[in-house]
Amino acid sequence: MRISELSAVTGVTVPTIKYYLREGLLPEGERSAPTQAAYGDVHMQRLRVIRALLDSGVTIAETRRVLEALDTPPEKAHDLLGTAHAAITPPVDDALDLTEAEQLATQLGWEPGMCSQAVLHAVARALQGLKRAGFTVPDPVMPVYLENIRRIADAEIAGVPTESAEAAVRYVVLGSVLVEPLLLALRRVAQQVASAERFGGAGN
Amino acid sequence: MRISELSAVTGVTVPTIKYYLREGLLPEGERSAPTQAAYGDVHMQRLRVIRALLDSGVTIAETRRVLEALDTPPEKAHDLLGTAHAAITPPVDDALDLTEAEQLATQLGWEPGMCSQAVLHAVARALQGLKRAGFTVPDPVMPVYLENIRRIADAEIAGVPTESAEAAVRYVVLGSVLVEPLLLALRRVAQQVASAERFGGAGN
After folding, report:
1. Distance from CA of A40 to the nearest CA of B (A)
2. Total beta-carbon pairs less than 8 A apart between chain A and chain B
3. Do B149 and A176 touch (CB under 8 A)?
4. Do A104 and B186 touch (CB under 8 A)?
């Protein structure tokens, strides 16, 4: 199909599609004439993934890395996660103190070498952000975070599809990125429900 | 203290402080001379909160609304959460279908009126993002999300400090925003740990 048709079926405007092509997020169509290219299912599917990533707050640069991870899966299933997380996690920052992050990770079952430095640094960076704001997670709350997040991760990893490498890549890469807004939104609903039950107020 | 001293103690550059002043994020200092203003603890504390919010990906406009929520707490404790969430949740979108979001909310204990439309819309938007990308949360995983997120929210709401309204506001507003990067980072660690245990790979 032509770019105008690709635009019509996906609801993404032609200038936006051209922008994704220039940025290398979307592969070029097959040249059907000097000024015309043909697009197919691959482009439709890829456009949906791009929109979903950008809509959930992933940057253009991170989206490019996530798409690269989708296109060039590593050999070992476990490395997929590292690749997916690396695509959306800021680079490591050697000035960060990892002590507390490693303590929390240990309570999640972590042993040295089990996960990428990037995600440990992300934990350390989040802890630093809380500290800078003068905010402390109450003592009884942190173990609840760790216990329930570990249960969530167990269910997610148990759900990795095994029928094909492609399905596994898709699940791991998109699942770890795209599910984040859902989990955060559900947490807000649950907080308001728990708050209404405790304080008896109504939402607005 | 002078603006240069405020910069020195907080590590935030003078141009950045001036930018926050212009944007109305930071209250003006007390005029001590026509071209000089004096800053105090309030400004130091506020700067820390601003940095923490911006560092965790909250926009300037959202930060302004969070700070307004901190400054003008609502009368009822429960409304705090609505105010905090409204500050960081995009406006409602009437084109969204809320059916599935309400089903999930119901499983979290939600009844109509218990939480703000904004957070239900955030759930619906996240579900739409997943659908657009052609990603489905596996059937056995969704109940695990709901159950464990509800446990997390219960612990968080049980931890709301009761010694003062100010402490409660601070906990609720900052806790719901600033803890998000920590939870997401811990999930990534837990996923890599669970993956290493299941697939036997090592991190990188």
Report:
1. 16
2. 332
3. no
4. yes
Report the distance separating Cα B202 and Cα B204, nearest Å: 7
The angle that helices B141-158 and B99-107 make with each other, rounded to 10 degrees, is 60
Residues A189, B120: C-beta atoms closer than 8 Å? yes
**Spatial distance between the Cα atoms of A62 and A58, rounded to a whole number of angstroms:** 6
- Domain B1-55 in CATH 1.10.1660.10: yes
Where b means 16+ CB within 10 Å and e means fewer, B49-68 reads bbbbbbbbebeeebbbbbbe
Q: Is the pTM of this model over 0.95?
A: no
| Residues B159-190 pLDDT 10s | 888 777 667 777 877 888 889 989 999 999 99
Cβ atoms < 10 Å from Cβ of A107: 16
Domain boundaries, chain B: 1-55, 56-199
Which two tokens mark A84?
A: 């997916």
ipTM over 0.90: no
